[in-house]
Amino acid sequence: MGWISVALPAVPLLGALLLLLPPRTLRAPLGTYGLIFSGVTLALSLLLLATFDYGAAARMQFEVDRPWVPGLGLRFHLGVDGISLPLVVLTALLTFLCFVHLSRGRTPPRTPREPAATQPSGGRAGGALMSARPRALVFTLLVLEVGMIGTFLALDLLLFFVFFEIVLIPMYFLIGIWGGAGRRPASIKFILYTLLGSVVMLLGLLLVWAQTGTLDIVALSASHGAGMARSVQILAFVAIGIGLAVKTPMWPLHTWLPDAHTEAPTAGSVLLAGVLLKMGTYGFARIAIPVLPEGAAAVAPWLGAFAVVGIVYGALACLAQRDLKRMIAYSSVGHMGFVLLGFATLTPVGINGALFANVAHGLITGLLFFLAGALKDRFHTSEMPALGGGLLARMPRLGSVLTFASIASLGLPGLAGFWGEMLALFGAFQPANGLPRGLFLTYMVIGGLGAVLTAAYFLVMLSRVTHGRPRPLTTPSPTPGESPAGDAAAAVDDRLIPGTPDERPVAPLGGTPAHPSATATLAPSPADNRLESQPAGQDPGKEAPGDISSRELLAWTPLVILILLFGLWPGLLLSLTTPPVQTLLGVLS
Question: Which domain holds residue 237?
Answer without folding.
Answer: 3-108+118-466+549-586
